[in-house]
Amino acid sequence: MIEVKPCSSVEELHEAVGAITHYFGWDSSLGETERFAQNLDVGRMHAALDDGAIVGGAGAFTFELSVPGGRVPAAGVTVVGVLPTHRRRGVLKAMMRAQLDDVRARGEAVAYLWASEAPIYGRFGYGLASLAGEIELLRDRSAFTVPVPSGVSGRLVDADQAAATFPAIYDRVRVERPGMFARGETWWRQRKLADPAQRRWGGGPLQRVLLELDGEPTAYALYRIHSSWEGGVNTGHVDVIEAMGATPPATLAIWRYLLDIDWVAKVTADLLPVDHPLFLVLVEPRRMGFRVGDGVWVRLVDVEAALSARAYAQQGEITLEVEDAFCPWNAGHWRVTPAGAERTDSPGEIALDVRELGSVYLGGFTFGWLADAGRIVELEPGALARADDLFRTSRAPWCPEIF
């Protein structure tokens, strides 16, 4: 019989994480797990045991998630896996049950994740909530339609200097962009600014650049140069890991810097927002070859708290008839207004599963879009349009890193 329990030591955490690293072919050391545990509490890793042996694991970071007009306590679900010896035996379901019960007990209204395999998490109430893009742009096709702001200066910095300046820029973006989460100092040091060899993937050392606009730090980028030559011509590329501008001019400036790096043929980047300004500032935006894939998946663990934590675009109300088989405390009729959400006995105007509620929560998808896909049902004529007016956001959700 499978038993699921929180880990009680770094050694147990190490074994539980091994259920997912098995599939990536990683041979992580206990020392690496100890560093990982600086950001993930040992007790937030659930281990599945069969006769005392750990055969699966599911972890969760403690996050503060940016939502439209606000922030909400959230679980950043991570390192979920079951060893191939125990697949199709209900191990994942048991871990999801224990994890979501724990998330609820901690008062976190939302759980969200990056899905390694898209079909898995809908069964547990997660809905696709954002899209992410990747590009591959030749430098000689990177001309802008607008001038780069004047008064820009840049300098390469070390990890300590980056840790002192980058977080403030990131936080200015985070409070305005749904889908991002707050990063603590340890997260910055261990996950963003550290440069272990196994993260280089054939590239050079991590480069950290800080841009100042009129003397104020306003943008940064993390990138690696992958150098290669053919027939005496450089065919290498700059791999952009993260580029962040606190203002629109700063965003243009940091991308102009990246696109102007010499001795490379192209620039690549992924995990980009689908409303990236490059679409409108490049002379030839099609040259990016912008490819779109799924981003984060969101699960409302407490419908009332989650819906009440975000802002709404205008006055009005909508009554949602929510189904939630895995977390039945969420099922029922919910009246949503700019003041928040509350249970109601009024008839539902839109019927949907909690999965679809997760899809619209950050503003990545609309009720109308979901209805066109046959995912929700309009019970009252005009309800879809009213719901979209209420839930409308000005920015596409974006999470700039996989956690």
Shape assignment: globular
Report the major sheet. 7 strands, mixed
Strand content: 25-35%
Briefly note the structural class of the backbone: alpha+beta
Which stretches of 5+ consecutive residues score pLDDT under 50? Answer: none
CATH top level label of the largest domain: Alpha Beta
What is the number of domains? 3
Walk me through this protein's architecture:
The chain is of the alpha+beta class and 403 residues long. The chain has 3 domains: 2-108, Aminopeptidase, CATH 3.40.630.30; 137-292, Gcn5-related N-acetyltransferase (GNAT) (Aminopeptidase, 3-Layer(aba) Sandwich), CATH 3.40.630; 303-391, Nonspecific Lipid-transfer Protein, Chain A (2-Layer Sandwich), CATH 3.30.1050. Helix content is 27%, strand content 32%. The strands form 4 sheets. The chain has a 7-stranded mixed beta sheet with strand order 1-2-3-4-5-16-6. Strands 8-9-10-13-14-7-15 form a 7-stranded mixed beta sheet, sandwiched between helices. It has a 5-stranded mixed beta sheet with strand order 19-18-17-20-21. It is globular, with a radius of gyration of 22 Å. The mean pLDDT is 97.
